[in-house]
Each structure stands twice: as structure tokens, then as C-alpha cells.
Write a structure and sequence with these properties.
By secondary structure, the protein is α+β, with helices and mostly antiparallel strands. The protein folds into two domains: 2-192, Protein tyrosine phosphatase superfamily (Protein-Tyrosine Phosphatase, Chain A); 233-265 and 285-379, no CATH class. The protein is built from ten helices and 17 strands. It has helices spanning 4-17, 60-72, 107-123, 125-128, 155-163, 173-184, 195-211, 228-231, 270-282, 309-312, and strands at residues 2-3, 22-26, 42-46, 83-84, 97-101, 241-247, 253-256, 287-288, 291-292, 299-301, 318-322, 331-336, 340-341, 347-348, 351-355, 359-365, 376-379. Helix 3 (107-123) packs parallel to helix 6 (173-184). The two termini are 45 Å apart. InterPro entries: Dual-sp_phosphatase_cat-dom, DUSP12, Prot-tyrosine_phosphatase-like, Tyr_Pase_AS, Tyr_Pase_dom, TYR_PHOSPHATASE_DUAL_dom. Its EC number is 3.1.3.48.
Length: 391
């Protein structure tokens, strides 16, 4: 790893002395055709700025392949439109790869960490299969962790490993989030078709639209029911409970529980938590079919679904959700691209909420562990719905 100024000013003499054969430039810079950083070397250019909202993850598969080729099989031509093969100077050199940006701190560090994650996954795929289903935002300052090289690396342990040779390495928050996303996907060789990546792009599109105070174009909205096969769990269970959510007026199916968006209540202060704990101790709870009957959220939050297109094509930032049954037309909820606050205090952004008082939640229970048929199509009374819907 290195910084761009050092690489550009000292050029060929510096990289040649270190046995470099391949160079990745992660910088928004136009390189002249006779640049010493290109002439005589395999060169791969990633033209991005060091900004949180830059899409660097889309380059990971190509940069990983380029680094792998440079370290192990550099004599062969790297077949990629972004890599420029040199006609002079490769013979007799030791293989080596230089990854640089402007300061050698954020962009280049991210590319190297992505390679370390990918390589670690290839070396230990069984451990990588146990990755957390959803990536978590990285802390602003990474923990000082000594990685166990026998285990599959995580973004934090890979960063700690990199800092052993490059102490100033510090990917920005957006790049660290993308490393977590890449890690959660299992470090694939292609990412364009990955559902998690598609959702990340969708969220990125929403943020860009809201930044200019506009709602996303309908053609750019990801409607989850159009990607239902991607969202199904790979494994099967002998017993699986879910909900059908229907319009209370006409019984038209509006959503399944697989389209629900989970959210967290606003965190309480310690004093409020103690008061709530005392109230809960005094309150006798009733349960039916193992479902807690405590007071529930006033809305069921959903991913955008295709029946909402008529409500969203107007381009409004917020509005009502109308039952798609033309003979019904009931107001079943509301939406707000900027986000909605639930009655529990939690925020969901973007917010697509069905009012619980205007829909019915029908519990559907498949075969039990003993193979017997379970209750299906049961309308739950008020207060018995939260845990069944996994909210």
C-alpha cells in the first residue's frame, strides 16, 4: 500500500525497487499515457473519490481478481478492460502489487481489506458459511483486535491485520459499511445479482433522491414481492408460522409477514426502564398459542409492494396507501419516504405502514414437527399479533 503523491512523483524507481509488477490506482485522477506509473506495469484504475457515498463495493470482484493475478500468476495477461498491459519491462521481475490512493489511508485500505476478506473466505469457506445474515454498520473507530489467522477474517480483524504494516489505514464509514456488506454476502466473485447488494443500491437511490427533496422514480423502486424468490430462506423447517395481512373491509390480501420490516422501539433512560420493569412485574400477561398480548405497535411496516405503484407514481414524498381493490378503495395506511415514527417511538425509513385497525392479520401455520396439520387462517384478536409477525 502507498499514497498517490509518493507513487506519482517517484514512480518507476520506487515500485521497481520493491518488485512491483501490478498497480491499482484508487483515485479520481487522469493518468497520462506516458506516466511512469503505467508504463511497464499492469495497471488497474478505480476512479472514485474518498466519500462515504461512493460505490466502491462494485469494484471488489475485479480488484480481487487483479490482486490475485498479480501475486500468483502475473505473467499472464489480465483480461479486463480496465487493466493496461505493458509491452516492456515485465521480464525477470518478482511478482508484487501496489495499491495506492491519495493518502494511503481509506480507499486503498478498503480495496486491500476486500481482498483479504475474499482470500480468507476462499481458504476457509466452511467458517464463512456461518456469517451473520445482515451486516451491521461498523463503529467509527475500529477495535484494536489481534486477528487469529486460522479463522475467517472479518472487516475488523482484516483492518487490524493491515494496520500491522500500515498503521494509518482507516476506511471511511461508508467504505467500512460496504466491507461489512461484502462480508455478509460471503465475498462473492460477482455481486450484481446479489439480493443484499440490490437492496443496498435501492437504499442508496432513496438517499440520493431525498437529498434533493424528491421521491424516487417508480421505475427505480424495488418492490419486494417482485423478488419473492430471492427472499425465501434456503433451508426448510418442519414448522413455519407466518401471517397473511388482509384489508379488513374487503379481505383482499395486502402482504405476507415475509414483507414486514422490523424496527426497534426508542431506547429508554435507565429510570424509565426501571419504571417499565415494575409495571411489567405487576401486569398479568395473557398468552394464547404462545403469543404475547401486550400492547402492540399501531402500524405494520412493509417493504414497498407492487400494489402500491398507483399511490407512488404521483411522485409525492408522503401520502395514503389505498386498498388496490377498485371496489373497495379503503384507506389502509400511509407512507413517507423521509420516514415514519411508530407508536413505540421507533423510526422506519422509508416508512410504509398499514394501520392495524384497518387490516386483519391471519395466522398461517404449516405442518408441525410431528407432521400434523396446524391451525391456519385464524384471525387473531387485538393484542395477539406482534410475535407471530416477528415485529
Amino acid at each position: 500500500m502507498g499514497d498517490g503523491w509518493e507513487a506519482c512523483t517517484q514512480g518507476g524507481s520506487l515500485v521497481m525497487a520493491r518488485g512491483i509488477t501490478h498497480i491499482i490506482s484508487v483515485i479520481d485522477w487522469k493518468f497520462a499515457g506516458d506516466s511512469p506509473l503505467i508504463r511497464g506495469y499492469q495497471h488497474f484504475h478505480i476512479p472514485i473519490e474518498d466519500n462515504d457515498d461512493e460505490n466502491l463495493i462494485e469494484w471488489f470482484p475485479k480488484s480481487n481478481a487483479f490482486i490475485e493475478r498479480g501475486l500468483n500468476d502475473w505473467q499472464h495477461d489480465f483480461q479486463d478492460p480496465g487493466a493496461n498491459a505493458s509491452e516492456d519491462g515485465d521480464a525477470g521481475r518478482n511478482s508484487g502489487v501496489l495499491v495506492h490512493c491519495a493518502m494511503g489511508k481509506s480507499r486503498s485500505a478498503t480495496v486491500v481489506i476486500a481482498y483479504l476478506l475474499w482470500h480468507s473466505h476462499r481458504q476457509n469457506p466452511s467458517a464463512s458459511s456461518a456469517l451473520t445474515p445482515q451486516h451491521n454498520p461498523a463503529p467509527k473507530k475500529s477495535r484494536d483486535t489481534t486477528p487469529d489467522k486460522s479463522d475467517t477474517l472479518t472487516p475488523e480483524t482484516a483492518l487490524a491485520l493491515l494496520r500491522e504494516s500500515r498503521p494509518i489505514a482507516e476506511p471511511n464509514d461508508g467504505f467500512m459499511e460496504q466491507l461489512h456488506l461484502y462480508h455478509s454476502m460471503g465475498c462473492p466473485d460477482t455481486i450484481d445479482s446479489q439480493p443484499k447488494y440490490q437492496r443496498w443500491l435501492y437504499q442508496k437511490n432513496i438517499q440520493e433522491s431525498l437529498a434533493i427533496n424528491r421521491a424516487p422514480e417508480v421505475d427505480n423502486i424495488r418492490f419486494e414481492d417482485e423478488h419473492e424468490e430471492e427472499n425465501e430462506d434456503a433451508g426448510t423447517s418442519a414448522e413455519k408460522r407466518h401471517l397473511d395481512i388482509k384489508c379488513r373491509k374487503c379481505r383482499r390480501l395486502l402482504a405476507k409477514s415475509s414483507f414486514l420490516v422490523d424496527h426497534q422501539p426508542t431506547s429508554l433512560s435507565s429510570s424509565n426502564q426501571n419504571q417499565r420493569h415494575e409495571r411489567q412485574k405487576q401486569k398479568q400477561k395473557q398468552t394464547v398459542m404462545g403469543v404475547d398480548t401486550e400492547k402492540e405497535c399501531a402500524h405494520l411496516f412493509l417493504h414497498p409492494l407492487s400494489w402500491m405503484k398507483g399511490n407512488l407514481e404521483k411522485g409525492e414524498l408522503d401520502g395514503r396507501l389505498i386498498c388496490p381493490n377498485q371496489k373497495c378503495g379503503a384507506n389502509v395506511g400511509k407512507f413517507a419516504w423521509q420516514g415514519m415514527q411508530c407508536s413505540c417511538g421507533g423510526w422506519v425509513t422509508p416508512g410504509f405502514g398499514l394501520a392495524r385497525g384497518r387490516v386483519d392479520e391471519v395466522a398461517m401455520l404449516t405442518k408441525t414437527a410431528y407432521g400434523a396439520s396446524a391451525v391456519a387462517g385464524v384471525r387473531l384478536p387485538p393484542g395477539m399479533r406482534r410475535e407471530v409477525g416477528h415485529l
